[in-house]
Each structure stands twice: as structure tokens, then as C-alpha cells.
Amino acid sequence: MLNPTVEQVIERIESFAPPAFAEPHDPVGLQLGNRQQPVKKIMVTLDVRPEVVAEAIANQIDLIIAHHPMMFHPAHNLDFQDPQNQMYADLIQHSIAVFAAHTNLDEIPAGMNHWLAQALGLTQCQPFNRQLKADPTVKAYLGVVGQLAQPQTVQQFAKFCQQQFQLTGLRMITHKPQQLVQKVAIIGGDGGKFYPAAIAAGADVFVTGDVYYHTAHDMLAHGLSVLDPGHHIEAIIKQQLPPLLRQWAKQAGWSVTITSSQLSTDPFQFI
Predict the structure, then answer these.
(1) pLDDT value at position 230?
(2) What are φ and ψ of residue 41, in 5° steps?
(3) Is 90 exceeded by the pLDDT of residue 72?
(4) Alpha-carbon separation of residue 120 from 116, 164, 177, 225 (angstroms)
(5) For 128, what's the count of Cα atoms within 13 Å in the CB-facing half-sphere?
(6) Which residue windows are coiled coil (predicted)?
(7) How far is CA 140 from CA 49, 186, 188, 191, 192, in A?
(8) Domain that holds residue 157
(9) Does residue 265 fall inside a structural domain?
(10) Does residue 68 lie in a domain region?
(11) CA spacing 20 to 30 A to 12: which of 30, 57, 66, 157?
(12) Both 241 and 131 in a single domain?
């Protein structure tokens, strides 16, 4: 068995989550590193932050696979007093490559939003919220809608959602906390602007993160109940992607160790 190269790992991931599914300005793909570098150890993370890089260095990781791209904006300088720039230097110094699968992982049929729907025990799941691409044959959907096994009140479902995602708190947006709901729409990350698509899909309740104040008022005006469990629920990638990577490695005959970051990169705390 041989160690795969960074390029070989990228090719396998992109066969699962093709870049054609990504949003136009989303910087998915290889962010840093040598495509021909052999890979002995892979670490999966939601975010690439200085503490995550320190963890990767300590564990002699060769390739970090992240959901959120490390570089959303170009660096204006490489002054190492900036922690972000120092992080880039640390990655280069230790020959750690970084790859991101972001909205392409969100918009495939079996990707991020499917994983989140599974975590909530939804059945009869269907994609919704079609995203048009340059290639009209690409069927990309940013969201999943499905059914709870039994109806719950909005309040009960909020508690269930909090439990399933192991949260210390979440935001509930509703005029009717005791209303029974069964059809749930979910979009991981910052999906508040897509609430009209959730309404069009017939959802009783919409789960998404980073809901803005004025958008929340608009949701209420339309009679939609919404739960905001935060952006960090997408850390589910750390549970869901490693088994796939191990399966692909076995099929390809690769010798590679696959782990997940043990750190929480959620910047928020409830007090």
C-alpha cells in the first residue's frame, strides 16, 4: 500500500463534491501546499484557525481538509504580527497542505445538509432551494426538507435540536412556540436569506444559522418559525467525512491515517 499524494486525495473528494456545485465566488479547492506531496496523515476540521494548525503540527498532519476555506480574502501583506499570516507561515514551514470543500459540499445530494437532516432524524428527505450554475445540467440544491417521525411543538423541536447538536443554547424565532410542526427545512451555515424557499417548500419550521435581526422580523411577518442553532453545527463534517475518506482509501489501496480535529472552533459562548 502506498501513500496517496495531495492531488490524489483532492481528486477523490472532488469526485464526491464536484467544484461545479460551488457558488461562483467560493474559493474551494487547494488553498495551500504541494499537490505532489505524499500524504501519511489527514485531519478533518470545520475551520482552519491558528489553534487547529497547532494541533495539526503536533500530530504531524500532512493534509488538512476543511469545510470553511482558510482564505476567503487575499492577504494584503505577510506581516507575521498578524496571527492569520503567522498561521500561513506555520503551515508552509511544516509542509501542511490545506484543502477546502465548502458550498460544493453543501449543494450535493449526499453532503452537508443531508448529514444535518440525518442528525435531526428527518425522513422522506428531499433537496430544495435550487441553485443555478453556469452548467445547466448541474442539479445543485442548497437545503434539505424532510419529516419528523412525530409532530412536535416548535418549543419541543427547539429543545430536540439543541440536544442533537449538543448546544448550550440556540435562538428561536416564532410567534407560536406551541404550534405543532412536522415538516422541517434545514440549511447549514448562513442560510437566513433563503427563508422564502423554505416557505415555498412547505416547511413548518426552518433550521439555519446566523439569522440577521431584520431578516428574523421578516420571517415572523410571514408566519414562519425558525431555529438558529448557529453556524458551528457544520462541525458535523468531523464525524461524517472521515468514514468516507477511510472507505475511499481502502478502495484505492492507500496507506493513510485519517483523524478529526478535537478542538471546537465555535467563537460563541452562551452565559
Answers:
(1) 98
(2) -135, 130
(3) no
(4) 7, 7, 19, 16
(5) 24
(6) none
(7) 29, 15, 15, 15, 18
(8) 107-229
(9) no
(10) yes
(11) 57
(12) no
